[in-house]
């Protein structure tokens, strides 16, 4: 998703709006140390595992 856009109100970015406003699902940032927001295979895997460990995401193991 874009980092900025219309309808973000007083927030600095769309991401900040989604993080602070009620009614949206959990928002997690994927960041690279040097580049800010960036999705990599490793940070996606780590964040997914963290959310599973915290029971935010519950995998369906029935298949």
Folded structure, characterized:
With 63 residues, the chain is mostly helical. The chain has one domain (1-63). 32% of the residues lie in helices and 6% in strands. The protein is built from 2 helices and 2 strands, in the order αββα. A two-stranded antiparallel sheet has the order 1-2. Strand 1 and strand 2 form a beta hairpin. The longest helix has 13 residues, at 41-53. It is flat and about 45 Å long. The protein starts with 13 loop residues before the first helix and ends in a 10-residue tail after the last helix.
Ordered list of secondary-structure elements with their pairings:
Layout (H helix, E strand, L loop, with lengths): L13 H7 L10 E2 L3 E2 L3 H13 L10
Antiparallel strand pairs: 1-2
Spatial ordering of strands, largest sheet: 1-2
Number of strands: 2
Q: Uncertain regions: pLDDT < 50 for 5+ in a row?
A: none
Considering DSSP H and I runs of 4 or more, what fraction of the residues is helical?
25-40%
Indicate the mean pLDDT: 82
How would you characterize the largest beta sheet?
2 strands, antiparallel
Instruction: Spell the H/E element sequence.
Output: HEEH
What Rg do the Cα atoms give? 14 Å
Number of discrete helical segments: 2
Distance between the termini: 31 Å
Number of domains: 1
The general outline is flat
């Amino acid at each position: 998703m874009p980092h900025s856009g219309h309808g973000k109100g007083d927030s600095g970015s769309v991401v900040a709006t989604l993080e602070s406003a009620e009614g949206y699902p959990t928002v997690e940032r994927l960041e690279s140390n040097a580049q800010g927001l960036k999705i990599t295979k490793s940070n996606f895997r780590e964040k997914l595992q963290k959310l599973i460990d915290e029971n935010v995401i519950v995998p369906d193991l029935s298949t």
